[in-house]
Amino acid sequence: MKKALSLIMVLAMIFALCVSGTAYADSQLAGTYDITVWVADAIVDLTKQQIDDFNATNTDGIVFNAKVEAVGEGDAATQMITDVEAGGDIFCFAQDQFARLVQAGALAKLGVKAAETVRANNDAGVVAAATVGEDLYAYPLTSDNGYFMYYDKSVIPEEDIDSLEKIIADCEAAGKYFSMENETSAWYIASWFFGTGCVSEWETDSDGSFISIHDTFNSPEGLIAAKGMKKLLDSKYYLSSSDAAGFDSGCAVVVTGTWAYETVAGILGDNLGAADLPSFEVDGKEYHMGSFNGCKLMGVKPQTDAVRAAALHKLAQYLTSEEGQMERFNAVKWGPANLADQANEAVQANVALAALLEQNQHSLPQGQIHGSWWDIAKVIGTDVKEAKDEAGLQKALDNYTAAISAVFNMSDADKNAWSVIGSICGTNWDTDFAMTEGDAGVFQSEVLELKAGEELKCRQGKSWDVNFPADNVVVEADGSYIVQLTVDGDSGVVELIAQ
Amino acid sequence: MNETLEKRHMGLKASARISNTIIYIVLILMAVVWLIPFICIVLQSFRVESTWQVGYVIPQKWGWDNYVALWNSDFKRWYLNTFVIALCVAALQTVIVLCMSYTLSRFRFKLRDGLMRFMLILGMFPGMLTMIILYRVLKDLGLTQANAVPGLILVYIASSGMGYYVSKGFFDTIPKSLDEAARVDGATRAQVLYKIILPLAKPIVIYTILTAFMGPWGDFVFAKYVSFGTSAGMNVAVGMYGWLQLDQIGQKYTMFCAGGVIVAIPVTILFMCLQKYYVEGVTGGAVKG
Amino acid sequence: MKQYSDLEYLRLSKSQKFLYKLASFFTAIPRAIGNFFLAIGRFFKNAGLGVGKELADIFLTFKDGDWKTKTSYLVMGFGSIARGQVLRGLMFLLMEVVFIFYMVTAGGHWMSMLPSLGKIGPHEEYNEILDAYTMVYGDNSFKILLYGVLTMFFIVAFLYTWRLNVKQNQLAEEYLKSGRRLKTGADDLRSLVDEQFYKTLLALPLTGILVFTVMPIVFMILVAFTNYDGTHDGYNNALFGWQGLSNFRTLLTWSGSGVNYSATFGEILTWTLIWAFFATFTNYFLGMFVAMMINKKGIKLKKLWRTVLVMTIAIPQFISLLYVSKMFAKNGIVNGLLLDLGWIKQAIDFWGSTAHNGLLPRVMVIVINIWIGIPYLMLIATGILMNIPADLYESSRIDGANAWQQYTKITLPYMLFITGPYLLTSFTSNMNNFNVIYLLTGGAPTNAAASGAAGSVGYTDLLITWLFKITTGAEAQYYLASVVGIMVFVVVAVISLVVYNVLPSIKNEEDFQ
């Protein structure tokens, strides 16, 4: 039956081509294109269907002869960067890969009109995620790449789900795990910091290179976040994983996203609960855990032929249109980015998406984050786990800052700032004490308690590129000192002024 | 006198019995440890009540569903690809390795020592580094993605000459006097190889074929590089590795186990049958290096 | 150290002998290292002398040669053809024609681009009517480097052939002068299956190695001197160019603020060596032990035990190792079983524990590697143990030796002597054992101290998996991977050469035949 139908469709198309050949001649785009499309395994069949529909309905006479391959969203970016030429003409990827892809020259800019349409119809967060400078580089595929909490109703009573402490207690009482991937994924770690109001904002220039960072993870709020995280990490029944199958091997809570819905539903059945993340309590104050809200995007590979490029953009537009996104929601329950779709009743009735929407009130849009950030920030998890006390937690944050400033250019003010470092005040050449400039070229530290035999140096921009004096200063007698540095051209004099 | 001897004899027997019992216990424990993962994989592959990882071993509901799902997936294609690659590599690599090792064992020519030292040094470079360049070379030859199968065969066999150590060691153990006798009788060097040496080298030939055949089943790092984005060019390892990714593991985990069983069967059977030669080859050769 | 003569040595007591051997092993190490550098020096000296000699030879051949020889300097193979060695001559001529054709059509272009690695980068254009952006691509640095290297190989090969051609003329003249017959084409062909059969046999393998191993390695070494990475891929986003030694400086010294590559490298290297040591020797001794148990007289079902163990060899590692890694997850089967039995109160975080520099995961990978490795060693040891002459044991038993003495006096020395080279190769291949680490832990748990260095480094990461992370990581720093690769090579090479020079059983290759 299906075969017969498609046969008829093909015949009808050929017929239409013959009859209205003149009408198509207006369009420069008419023609047959061999293309490769990379999408996630779950939507391969759907995408094939959608391309057939496009071939049948478009008015430009475009016929795509498409090879649709299953390439996971994580893999797609890595493989595009390995070899852009051999990559899919149209491919899907998660937002965190966006900056890499633009820098690698693997994404074609959207035309002016196409960009306008996308901006008008999709949620602002997603549009921002696909923008570099003034230009759009990708089409919104979904707006559901965030995380929230799935839980087992038989273990966690409904009234407990707003409090992390209560949930942990329930888990421990039942001997069930609380599963959240804090040790290997910065994406989840950020939840704690966003919850206390920390931010990590990144600005790119038109090439997709990063020009500045505004990051407040290392702050009093950040320390509160680390304390909250430590509570969970210290629990006997904590598991660092985001695998929904954990429900079948001892988990009562898994923090993960909409893609896991079917697995969770399969395991928990009626006991499935989905909710926004809970609040955690530090020093008597409640903080609601935050999250990233991200999206999946569809990109077109840069082309050398304008006609082919235009045709491909038409297809991408079609696949990510209001109907295209709705079809995907119906087939695999991916949450749409299209504003009209988001208002749809069926979408709003979905348990997982509802939880995600709830969580979105506490989430930050996942801007353009540098690929290295994910590697750097995930270390916070292991550092916090190892920390013994508050100083340990603070050290985790200091490590993070050091790693960030090592990879990214610091602001000019930071680069020029001087600091004292040494075996002083219980530190061991790993902590910088800030200095402030008084008279021109004279920098002073706060009052420091120094002991005889301790050694120190002054350095600029927390790096050893410029430092004074050549040999370490050795403290001669215990006491309170101000460290004073006088810089004159290429030389600098360090003095200890007793208070 | 007689009595004490008897006693001593019995003591020896008893102590032998005790030590044998201990050995049996150790061996049984080892057998269990070695077999558990495989038994688990087999059991999981018959689980039909769910498709994800679970915390128990024995399925609640048994069935062939996962194998049926395998049959309906691209697995067939991957399996065929891998099988073709393994066969071709087994044939060609054996020829190359035997040429190389026989030559280095039997001929003394000017550059021989230099050549052996050079290859030793080459082998110290981490092969992973050259992946990207090999990929580009294959791409320029049009042997990537959908055509990954011939491309992979080419790369696997091209450098296989470097792995001559084991079989050279084996050839070294065949007395040179045999060659010389044949040469005196007027045989050419080529005839010596075909008529005298090869029949004696059966274990090492089989050993080489066996290892060459087994290699391609497990390679997924380079194979992934070469076949990315094209299901038609993948081998089993690359294809199945995709099933363990976050977006698929919930649906494909038990299929992965079933696939593992199907992959393991031919290699295991082959290995069991040819184990004798493998041992002869490896002991004749590996020890010499 | 005092050197003993043979006679003095024999008079020493057992413990003295042992100490002497030990001491001579260690005193040999500096000498071995010294010899290594001396050998390098000698190599260059000989190479320099060799080139001078060759040049003089070429000049003299031209001066003294007849017109056929002289013409051959320009038209390769002319002399051979003129003297009746048509087949040889034609081969030479064909080489020359092909080489000139290649250099004119392509090689010259690549060589001329090599110093700059390309001048024109890609740029974008906008087509207003179609509302579409297109890319206009320029040079391709990668191809320039690749084909540049290839062309250099061709040039070297051509020079060698040309030299051969001159030599042939010289020899032919000598032959004719002394009245000997020159070899005909048929003679040449016949010799390829006889005296020179080795050339026939080696042609194919060596070509493969040259193109698919040597050339890529040369290429990757060159990459270490460029800035080739994900954002300078040489074609799609930006060209890459030569950077001199700055990448090595980055790895070996403090690089700006915070990231300390040298410390990271040192840390990973240390673990790599520890891993290689344990992975090699645990397998070696336990494998031998298992083989001895199975081979012991009176043990039945020998074949069954062997078969069970050998299954780990037959089943592809990506299946067995991935499964084993899931088994030991915090909510995996092993923890579940231990909890049910009440042996532990709290699940053990086998892969995630960072205590004591990730001691637990490190021990775990070594233990699971034993599971993988014992069967191989068991097979090898079985074969060797069977070869030990039984009368050695018999006579030692009569002398009253117990099992332990037999082991230390007979079995172990025999094994060690025969498998010395094998131990060395398995040590170096364990250093580069990608599969076990990648499939079991992927390098986890994250090493906080080494954060910020390219790719995130974990406690179980070996140099080889770090290298993989660098190339496939966020920034795809191929140049850095290349530098690390070269360092890995240096480490492996030094270790091998030292051991190679100290081990007795390798040197005497002919002893075994």
Tell me, rounded to a whole number, the average pLDDT of chain A.
85
Radius of gyration of chain B: 25 Å
In the CATH classification, which architecture of chain B applies?
A: Orthogonal Bundle
Low-confidence stretches of chain A: 16-26
Observed structural traits:
heterotrimer, A: 499 residues, alpha+beta, D-Maltodextrin-Binding Protein, domain 2, Immunoglobulin-like, 7-stranded antiparallel β-sheet, B: 289 residues, mainly alpha, MetI-like fold, 13 helices
Break the fold down into its secondary structure elements and pairings.
The complex is a heterotrimer of chains A (499), B (289) and C (513).
Chain A: H1 2-19, H2 21-25, E1 31-39, H3 44-57, E2 62-70, H4 73-82, E3 90-94, H5 98-103, H6 112-121, H7 124-129, E4 131-132, E5 135-136, E6 139-146, E7 148-152, H8 164-174, E8 177-179, H9 186-195, E9 200-204, E10 210-215, H10 220-233, E11 238-239, E12 251-256, H11 261-268, E13 272-275, E14 279-282, E15 285-288, E16 291-300, H12 306-319, H13 322-332, H14 339-342, H15 345-349, H16 351-360, E17 363-365, H17 371-377, H18 379-386, H19 390-407, H20 412-416, E18 418-422, E19 433-437, E20 442-450, E21 455-460, E22 467-474, E23 479-488, E24 491-498
Parallel strand pairs in A: 1-2, 1-3, 8-11, 8-12, 16-17
Antiparallel strand pairs in A: 3-16, 4-5, 6-16, 7-12, 7-13, 9-10, 14-15, 18-19, 18-21, 19-20, 20-23, 21-22, 23-24
Chain B: H1 2-45, H2 65-71, H3 75-106, H4 112-122, H5 131-140, H6 148-158, H7 165-173, H8 176-184, H9 189-200, H10 202-218, H11 221-227, H12 236-243, H13 249-285
Chain C: H1 6-11, H2 14-64, H3 67-72, H4 78-82, H5 86-113, E1 123-127, E2 132-136, H6 141-177, H7 185-192, H8 197-223, H9 246-252, H10 261-295, H11 302-314, H12 317-327, H13 333-341, H14 355-387, H15 390-398, H16 403-431, H17 434-440, H18 463-472, H19 478-502, H20 504-507
Antiparallel strand pairs in C: 1-2
Helix pairs in contact in C: 2-19, 5-6, 6-8, 8-19, 10-14, 10-16, 11-14, 12-17, 16-19, 18-19
